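Exam revision sheet. Question 4 asks you to relate a sequence to its structure. Input first:
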Amino acid sequence: MYRKLMTLIGCLLTGIIAAGQQQYSPMRNIEVKIGPWQKRQALIYTPEENVPGKKYPLLVCFHGRSIAGKDLSKIFREGVTRQLKEGKKIEAVNKKDGQLYKFIVVAPLAESWSMAPRT
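Answer key, structure tokens:
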């Protein structure tokens, strides 16, 4: 009985976590450590054909004051993250070598507009 109950709880939690991640698709929620005692929420996008060991350029998307807070869905209001949400691919062809470059995109979310002073 205990095993069945724990299996059911595990399945429910997996479904809840998956549903929570789906609202940020094609990006996913991560925590970024910014100091010994501080973490910030962020969204990350990795190319669909993510090849282990392959290096990808990193694009960091900072937001403006109106998006600061705890609601990650606000990150999709403008810019590159909005384009990703609308289904556009973030990639470019280099004119010199003719190669197609795909990017990893990270969009951190600031909880407030200013940083607390260090004492």
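Marking note for examiners. The first strand starts at residue 28 and ends at 35.
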